[in-house]
Amino acid sequence: MRTPRLWRVADFMRLGAFQSGMDGVLVSFLEFERWKEWVYQYAFHLTSRSASLLVLRASFDLGDQKTKWTDFLLQFLEGIHCSELQELELNWTLTHLEPVDFYPSSGTVAQICLAKTDQYNSFQTLFEKLTRSAPKLSKIKLPFDWSEHSVSLLTHFHQVHTLELNYFWVFKGVRPETMKGLTKSLPNLKTLILQVLVPVKDLGVSYPLESKSLEYLDVSQSRGLVFSCLDLPSLKELKVKKTIRGIILNRRTKLALQSRWCCLYDLMKSGTPNLQMLNAHRLLPHWRERGYTGLSEVLMQSCFCTQHTDTWLL
């Protein structure tokens, strides 16, 4: 049947490595061609019916100059209706099935940087199209490069209530004002999951976060992410984990760094008046007025300040 509203989901993650739960699998050339044929047939099935999608899930390396997944997705979006699209899950850094000869044996730093640039340039091209064709997006999950252009594109989606941004590349840092500006610009944001890997060169940098609508914040998979200010009046649940990266510092350097960082407890008291849960711990009614043992134990696992850190490592 060709009624567009009968075809609501496009899920390119249904076959292959996704079923095994693995991040990526090298397969024979024949197996890869068979899977690629399924991808094209599935896309044709939806475009021939002018599908009006609510959900789009896909994982393709948009930097792949041989298979040209960017062109494939752009053509696919041209053939369907996206005006009602509400949910997008897009891993633009990885094709889960690749032929065994796809990856080169080695590459210089310059070649790796060029490949990463190709990836996020292609992602931005695709994302620009979605800003025009899918204004009702309310749930987004994808790797994010935190460039000014990508952030600007993301702020077009004013209906977003659930946002999950995973790290793109370990050497790609995040500017504090960029992070603050993004959350401030999404007026309906309720749930935010951030996976940020702060580069060692930015050790000591801390980040403000501001949102009037945010109710759930999970940064537990981040590394090196330390907050300087929290202005989250609607926040009910916070998940944060102090991940030690094994950076050995002498006492003087360590204290100099930590002196720049605010205590998470102080930030919570001043900026999260409706907070109820910290990690798996339900806060007692008097948590803002006075601390207690259970809260202190959670802060020892979550806060980088001198009071709550007892290791030479960062």
TrEMBL record:
InterPro entries linked: FBXO4, LRR_dom_sf
GO cellular component terms attached to this protein's record: SCF ubiquitin ligase complex
GO aspect biological process, one term: SCF-dependent proteasomal ubiquitin-dependent protein catabolic process
Top-level lineage group: Eukaryota
Stated name of the protein: Uncharacterized protein
Organism listed in the record: Pleurodeles waltl
